Known about the structure:
Elements: E1 2-6, H1 13-24, E2 28-30, H2 31-41, H3 44-54, H4 61-71, E3 81-84, H5 90-102, E4 109-114, H6 117-133, H7 144-158, H8 160-168, E5 171-175, H9 180-192, H10 200-207
Parallel strand pairs: 1-3, 1-4, 2-3, 4-5
Amino acid sequence: xxxxxxxxxxxxxxxxxxxxxxxxxxxxxxxxxxxxxxxxxxxxxxxxxxxxxxxxxxxxxxxxxxxxxxxxxxxxxxxxxxxxxxxxxxxxxxxxxxxxxxxxxxxxxxxxxxxxxxxxxxxxxxxxxxxxxxxxxxxxxxxxxxxxxxxxxxxxxxxxxxxxxxxxxxxxxxxxxxxxxxxxxxxxxxxxxxxxxxxxxxxxxxxxxxx
Length: 211
């Protein structure tokens, strides 16, 4: 199963991507991990990406797309993958579609975690307070100002993807403010209702989890 997971910062997207990957036995592919792996491997694309990062620039779309194209064709992704952090723009989504089409493949689903921004802010600030009170380091971006910047970037660049994928008929919107287990159950129920459902055994296993 080939999936894309969308959601604003703090929505729990990374947590759900990890859970999905474990349940479906397919790799979770994050943009950051893919970039670091390409740089470490010293590929031609990786060297170009490294040069951009060393100059303090964003890695150009064409390089990110090339790295993703290479990664999703590796043996461990043969039975599917979960893309976390890619695509970030409609242009990247169109490029991903082209990559898959040239290989006779398609996305099976796009999961959007919807959250109320005020509640999301409260969640992030509470996470920072809990970390501080327990003596743990607080993430640098767990501040009201940083979150507002990240949310603005998400609205500007990534939110238009929901319209793009909704038009394709593969977007499933999930309430991301439910408890984590409930979000996971909702995702599997949405996927099970799609044209290429997850196995009945996997869906049943998730539904049987304690709330």
